[in-house]
Amino acid sequence: MELSELILRLAIAFVTLLTLTRLMGRKEITQMTFFNFVSSIAVGTIGASLAIDATLSIRNGMIALIVWSAFTITLGVLDIKSQAARKVIDGEPRILIKKGKVLEDEPKKVRLDINALNTKLREKNVFSIADVDYAIFETDGKLSVLKKESQLPVTKNDLSIRQPAPKYFPYFHNDCIRWANY
Which in 58, 74, 149, 164 has the greatest CB count within 10 A? Predict the structure, then answer.
């Protein structure tokens, strides 16, 4: 492959990837589902193949990128619009702990062993399963924990301490307000 062809392929792949990733939407890596993660890797791989694989025509590489991205965008729209599609695409949150007891088969269903569950609990500052009212394994792999009432920190409301109204209102940029239709 000639240097000029390589540069052309790189430029086309770069612009195409930039455009398609903008169309696919922004999502922090921590918010990505497993499918989003795999799809992002696939798009990157197809883009890299387009850029450096001389046996792949630019036309076929572009078609592959566009079609894969269209599938990903379509699934994203279905995920937003349909509860049933979201259940198929992302799965459902699973209750792992209920009233201080690990539900027998639930950790196995999400392929989480007791050591990994304890690690996730410690990340939430929970060091005993008995302190947990509910623990829910979310579709993004995070653990949501509701501690038992006796384990929650004391609040000003618990101590009957009145809180003054806030002195300052949060500042919002006009474009944000306009975008949100306020």
Answer: 58
Residue linked to tokens 């060091």: 127
Q: 3-state DSSP call for residue 102?
A: strand
Q: How far apart are CA 71 and CA 108, in angstroms?
A: 31
152: Cα separation from own chain's centroid: 28
Domains of the chain, residue spans: 3-89, 94-150
DSSP letters of 105-147? SHHHHTT--HHHHHHHHHHTT---GGGEEEEEE-TTS-EEEEE
pLDDT tens digits along 112-154: 999 999 999 999 999 999 999 999 999 888 999 999 988 888 8
Query: Where does the pLDDT of residue 77 fall: very low under 50, low under 70, confident under 90, or very high at 90 and above?
Result: confident
The Cα–Cα gap between 36 and 21 comes to 12
Name 98's bridge partners: 101, 134
User: Does the domain at residues 94-150 carry the CATH identifier 3.40.630.30?
Assistant: no
